[in-house]
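Shapes recur. Our protein:

. . .
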Amino acid sequence: MQNDIHTIHSNNFNIHLTMKTKTPLIRRFLLIGIFLISLNQGNVFAQFIGADFNYKLDKTEKNDSLPMSMTNPGTLSFSSDPTLAVKYKVTLKLYFNCFHEDFHKQQPITIHESMANVQTAELNMDLDSVYSSTEYLNVSCEMAQEQCLKIATYSASVELKNLAGGYNITWGTGCWDFSVTNLDNLEMQGLAMVLHIPFSDDQKVNSSPIFTSLPQVLTCPQKIMNINSSAMDQDGDKLTYQLIHPFTYEQVNNLGNNKHDDIFPGQESYKPLIVGRPPFKQLKYALGYGFNNPFGKSAFSIDKETGSMNLEAAEAGKYLVGIGVSEYRNDIQLSQTQRIFLLEVLSEPKLMVQK
């Protein structure tokens, strides 16, 4: 029989819980019950708001951020010969509210051959910068006039040899907390993101689309809000926008190499994960919601050509939204840049700027 010790944090107290049980399901529901109690003791809200993931052709000099000991020499190389390898800079942006202070110095990612789905490397992205941004809301809202975000940017340089089908790069975290209105909060759900780098004669020199503005994360009920999710592509490829179904960190084939015993539903802080290779399971939405109607009965639309979204929220809550911008060249889809974020519809005045 196993002793499991967990600590639940709230604004007013800590609970140290020791459980003796052979049943993971029982342990899970005990944790859920205690966390629900903590929600009633104070204003617990998610500090992790979202992420986006992209890559670009790196024209700088040789960068050995991916050590040879982590690579398969058959597919990854540091050769300076452009005919043998192409260098890319992979960038991850994480969004938090302005009260967040604890930033991990690194974020793990894994690289996989797309067609064979074979992992070729595992490495860490280094923290490049953290900065705060305060912006006025573009909607008349009595409960808040501005939003404040902290943005943590991580990056790594990799050199990839020409490979039919290209590569997939994965990153993930856990978990979403109980305050997310449109998710099934009885499930252990985190986030996995997949970045595809294509390789063929006319596609190997490519950079993915990059969002041009920060996510808009606050609004009020019964107000029409425009959400700018436009992106740019330095190669001039055609872009289209759509709502996407986000992935959780759990793999479809249950390989088990991304399981972590210290993850439980509703934990307050995000945790970087080595999520392994795709495919991943899709997030489960609460009844009445889905990836294509993340706001339920609210009036919502997205322009597939510009990425502009209009929302008239019917009810207060926190809603998880997935936006994908796909790039096409010669009618062939090369890659898709994803942005996953929480948008909060306020029910009462909220202080977003840390004084």
